[in-house]
Amino acid sequence: MADREFIVQCSNDLRPEHCINRELSWLEFNQRVLEEALSPDNPPFERMKFLSIVSSNLDEFFMIRVASLWDQIDAGYNQPDVAGMTPRQQVSVITARVRVMMERMYEALRKGIMPSLETAGVSIKSRKTITPEQLEYADKYFDEQIYPVLTPMAVDSRRPFPLILNRSLNLGLLIDEGDSEPPSFATVQVPGGLPRLVRLPDKGTVSFAMLEQIISRNIGKLFPGRDVLCCHAYRITRNADLTIDEDDADDLLKEVEKRLRQRRWGFAVRLEIDYRADTRLVKILEDALELEGGDAYPIHGPINLDFLMKQLYNLEGYDHYKYPPYTPRQLVLGEGESMFDRIRAGDLMLYHPYDSFDPVIRFVRQAARDPKVLAIKQTLYRVSGESPIIAALAEAADAGKQVTVLLELKARFDEENNIHWGRRLERAGAHVIYGMAGLKTHSKITLVVRAEDDGIRRYVHLATGNYNDVTARTYTDHGLFTCDPKFGADASAFFNMLTGFSKLPPLEKLVSAPRDMREKFYMLIERETQFAMAGKRAEIFAKMNSLVDEGIIAALYRASTAGVGIKLIVRGICCLRPGLPGISENIQVRSIVGRFLEHSRIFMFHNDGIPEVYMSSADWMPRNLNRRVELLFPIEDQANKKRAAELLRLQWRDNVKSSTLGRDGHYSRAGKPDEKRINSQEALMEMYHES
Prior knowledge:
By secondary structure, this protein is α/β, with parallel strands linked by helices. The strands form 4 sheets. Strands 14, 18, 19, 20, 21, 23, 24, 25, 26 and 27 form a 10-stranded mixed β-sheet that branches. α2 packs antiparallel against α3 (44-74), α3 packs antiparallel against α4 (87-120) and α12 (388-398) packs parallel to α13.
């Protein structure tokens, strides 16, 4: 039986108790982020940042994952997932788990972060702590800055319930109608264009008032002559997933633009509301939004915590309440040496953010300005707001070079940004392709074609992360520069496939998804399995963001049963259940959550003493292996291969920011009290700083 057929049979034999539900595993990951917000080992402003990330993560989780489950329920789909849970059961368990998580979040805010901010000299005033002078200032600010922007919207027989914008902050009101009539409902949107935190006059401290509290205090000015019974903040999370029928879309760009406008009005999946809100107000909102009772989450604090990052974290003068600044290692070139000279000297592997991202920018920028460069081809998925990569590509196109960019239009929540950059590149004369029908192009590759004295030479950059100079400061990702002719030939064939929509010929070095990558991983795992069966040493050591794919899980279980030692560093979702007797007892799973977001994908196979190391843009997920254009590339230089293995081993020894996955699906800290503390990220910062 062929490897693929055998693995398919294995995956069919997976039982629910062998796997962890994907959504619950993601919530476990978000819990690990929350633990960083709770940890006194982290500086106060960093704890605040982690709490903001937890809140933002939950928003996206509800907009995409929970919304998808409700889509299934509404469609009558009742089939259990690989862990044996139906969509309705998953929603029920998610609701209970998120309620506990949100209670912990706001407890951390009230009891941990706010007191720490007070100690640092930053105060968010409440009704009890605000001074009369500050109240006078806030009332004047309302009259002059806020009142002109507000639009009260009442609901009655002539005025239907208004459309409430996704994730907008609002105030819900009940207004007394007298004569034994039930109170009427009104709503006011808190202006998103004004700062959420309003600076108050204060001596010796930095004081703020929440924008919604100022509006609530002055709400009677919007309803003169009416008796406002209550006024409470609320927010709605809506389905924000884009469903695009690409076969019927005559113009994908216009279709995405149309769907982006509709994203604001998807069906509601969550209501967050002040825990003190009148039950009648909650019922009105639930009925109007067609929500079930469990979809309302009482909030004991400010709704939506993004102001922690947008305003408080960036306050000047508080750097000593944050992580010490880190300066990445710079690539030093000799006098007159270009990036092309350096790459010709040998493959160059970088590890961001410990290595600076500047060499990647310099590579594209030098290519744009070098008269010997004939063409630049690049895939872009997510780029920064003021991307130097885009600027360099536009400069190259302006100079008459052949510039081809595949800009993925369907990169979730970056669609508008990518439309903007695509049009800028087109105006400069670049050839822009907005993705492929039915597939997301998630690969990270740049090809530069240069005419040199000895002929045409191709320079290639491959990476595990995006061409984003901002996230490269906080995401850990690997990149490889090479001018190996075989890599260059593969890169040319790959881009010809993307631009010409032709069939991809066999590649010698690169492995692509969705065509070959799944089979390649099956082969590599099965080879270790066969070594173990023959009594030889067999090991798999891999690092990724998520492990969800049933076929890969089945292959790993088979390898474990055969005696292969498997170590997995999986930052986020992991549906594999380690430590099951006779199934996965040779598999260990750890997750690292720390200062930097662990984002690189590395796959190392012992191969009977001749190790093979690969890096990729892909995780072990169905979407990466089946529905995305991805690349897997080998690390062949022996020094680079050795360094990649050393990095994995160091991260495995982490006992400060690492957690171990148990067979019950829960995580526990990897470290023991009597062990020497090893924080792999701190160790790497020190290591790269000294080298």
